[in-house]
Specification:
It contains 11 helices and 19 strands. By secondary structure, it is α+β, with helices and mostly antiparallel strands. It has a 7-stranded mixed beta sheet with strand order 1-2-3-4-5-14-6. The chain has a 7-stranded mixed beta sheet with strand order 8-9-10-11-12-7-13, sandwiched between helices. A 5-stranded mixed beta sheet has the order 17-16-15-18-19. The radius of gyration is 22 Å and the shape is globular.
């Protein structure tokens, strides 16, 4: 084989530099400078979670994850946010990526992390490792001259700019308030992410301006925020979150009113947002829908018992999972709005599906019946698909903000 998979030696600055350079080379982002490595990356990494494929003392592949809690219907569960997965172009098609992904999943399972999520640069890669599309997203673009709003909740609040230091104090609480009601969101963000927002390192701006931060406030309560950048005549909404309809409308009107900008872009928005229904000319909002967050059930039994279900019901599900063999088996799920129990059983299955397809249905992103029509699921008991659709349906579309 010639290489081994193991955590990167954090004490060894050279090995981390090799790890970061391999990542930059594989992603075609140029060589990481020593300054960028030390100021941006090195302080945020947990070495035991930073895996490297090492060949002759050289890092030829990388993978990393952070530990969070994920909002699921009716609660939250521990999950690993996966990132920085790469293999040097000189070492492709040698099984390195597969070895990295399997080792990472084994480590997650041992640590008790029920789920894993990632944002995929290519949609063909991660299904083979049991990841399925867990949330869709929309990338928006609209010309400013077409941003007239006809329908919007009224507010007597105000929108004001805040400094980076004020943002650091205010934004996390608003984020957590909004995230709590949206499956697919991390329940909170670790401090170093917000610290990176404050530092606003130039390499992370990708040619755009420094960040601008604004909040919406009503009767002394802050119920929304926006972070945006500018690039030429374009205003780029990096993140806009609101805990009320009035704050949502006010923040978008604020963005549309920034002078000297002729178009607004907003990547990574939720697919069920109300903005399109507020515009006087909704067709002018260009919306490109694509896959957003990918999700993986690392521990099927805990994942199925750890969320609530829209309707009471019982299902026996056969899960096929060659990548994580501890998940293979028949699961009896009894669930409803009050909670759920899941146990291994020898009963005949109602449905047979792969771990990848179970992942896509888990938050309610796609119906079981749709995957059945696409040839991905086998129905063994009449009515099981309809029952599964009803149980796993979600009141809100899953959404995960990946562009930090």
């Amino acid at each position: 084989m010639g290489w081994e998979i193991r955590p990167v030696a954090g004490e060894d600055g050279k090995e981390f530099d090799d790890w970061a350079t391999t990542l930059a080379t594989a992603l075609s982002r140029g060589r990481f400078s020593e300054e960028n490595i030390s100021s941006i990356d090195r302080p945020t990494y947990q070495w035991e979670r930073s895996l490297g494929a090492i060949e002759d003392s050289v890092v030829v592949g990388t993978a990393h994850s952070y530990r969070y809690d994920l909002i699921v219907p009716g609660g939250k569960l521990p999950f690993a946010g996966v990132g920085w997965v790469s293999v040097r172009p000189t070492h492709r098609r040698r099984g390195i990526l597969t070895a990295l992904m399997k080792r990472q999943l084994e480590d997650m399972y041992e640590r008790g992390e029920t789920l894993a999520t990632l944002g995929s640069s290519e949609s063909i890669i991660y299904g083979r490792y049991g990841y399925g599309i867990g949330a869709m997203k929309e990338n928006w673009r609209i010309e400013r001259k077409h941003t007239a709003i006809e329908f919007a909740a009224e507010t007597s609040g105000r929108t004001v700019f805040v400094s980076p230091a004020e943002m650091r104090e205010i934004f996390p609480g608003v984020y957590e308030r909004v995230a709590a009601g949206r499956p697919g969101m991390a329940a909170s963000r670790p401090g170093f992410i917000w610290d990176t927002w404050v530092a606003d390192y130039e390499p992370l701006r990708r040619g755009s301006s420094a960040g601008y931060y604004a909040i919406h406030e009503l009767d002394g309560e802050i119920d929304g925020y926006v972070c945006y950048r500018t690039a030429g005549n374009t205003l780029i909404v990096r993140e806009l979150l609101a805990a009320s309809d009035a704050a949502y409308a006010a923040l978008w009107q604020f963005c549309f009113g920034v002078d000297l900008k002729t178009e607004i872009e907003a990547p990574g928005r939720a697919v069920d947002e109300q903005l399109v229904w507020m515009l006087a000319d909704p067709r002018r909002l260009e919306r490109i829908k694509t896959d957003g967050m990918w999700i993986r059930l690392v521990d099927v039994k805990t994942a199925l018992s750890g969320r609530r279900y829209a309707q009471n019901g019982r299902l026996v599900i056969e899960v096929q999972d060659p990548v994580c063999p501890w998940n293979e088996g028949y699961y009896e799920l009894d669930g409803g709005p009050a909670g759920a129990e899941c146990r291994l059983t020898k009963d005949s299955p109602d449905l047979v599906l792969s771990a990848t397809n179970l992942a896509s249905t888990y938050l309610g992103t796609i119906k079981f019946s749709t995957l059945y029509c696409a040839g991905h699921i086998e129905e063994r008991s009449s009515g099981a698909l309809a029952r599964a659709d009803s149980m796993f349906s979600a009141s809100r579309e899953p959404w995960c903000i990946l562009h930090w």
